[in-house]
Amino acid sequence: MSQKPPPIKVSAQGIEAKPVTMNEPVPVIDWRALAALPPFQMFVHERSPCPPDGDSERWTIQYVERFVREVDAETLLEKYARWHADKGYWPDEDCMGNTKMNGGDHAA
What we know:
This protein is mainly α. Helix content is 42%, strand content 0%.
């Protein structure tokens, strides 16, 4: 007589509930300050190169305005944050140019 394999057990898990929040302030992004940062300018330049005789900060601001109008601000910030982390060139800064705390060191 052959033995049957153990039964396969299938279970389902629910989706974790997302807390409902009301009247929380929407974070405001200072795009002009971000556009002044070399890492953000580099991010934009890789997607839409600034003309050789152009002002890279102005070009970056114009790119942001187009992207936000055509897509949205959150997507642009997410793409930039991912790009910034993937590059790894600025390990002591977050994507907004703020110094990360390392072993007790604090941003000025």
